[in-house]
From TrEMBL:
GO MF annotation list: tubulin binding
GO terms classed as biological process: microtubule bundle formation; microtubule polymerization; positive regulation of protein polymerization; regulation of flagellated sperm motility
Subcellular location: Cytoplasm
Start and end residues of each stretch annotated as Disordered: 125-171
Coiled-coil ranges from the UniProt annotation: none
Provenance organism: Erinaceus europaeus (Western European hedgehog)
Record family assignment: Belongs to the TPPP family.
Name of the protein: Tubulin polymerization-promoting protein family member 2
GO CC, alphabetical: cytosol; microtubule
Taxonomic superkingdom: Eukaryota
Compositionally biased residues, Basic and acidic residues: 129-149
Amino acid sequence: MASEAEKTFQRFAVFGDSSSSNSEINNKNFSKLCKDCGIMDGKAVTSTDVDIVFSKVKAKNARTITFQQFQEAMKELGQKRFKGKKPEEALEDVYKLMEGKDPATSGVTKATNVGAVDRLTDTSKYTGSHKERFDESGKGKGIAGREEMTENSGYVSGYKGAGTYDKKVSK
């Protein structure tokens, strides 16, 4: 039976990386795990610490770490995070922080309508020729709202003899 910490490790290992087996975690997801679980607090443990520890425990040319290496990393981060505690206690505390945590998707980009977008799309503030393309309710008039419609007569615009071709040919 996998421990809570291992389950959390596996959930983060596959997060955003469908090719990942849940037995190894990459640096990005390792950092995310540390951040989402509150191991990285920005004071005792910073993102730099997390990156350094990750590099330290991984195999020389590997890009991921196993759960065993992850435990090493957590021991080290635990001692930074919970100063003055025995390594085992600190590790337990770190694992407590991880319990039942899922990769957070809060803060994932959502469409925003902040200030500028509202201002730029408010048709009542349009001036000049743009103003004419919308009715009072702000709904666009579409193609009818454009003055300069092109006619597909086949003649260059402004040609005075437009429409006279058939007359010449039929003579």
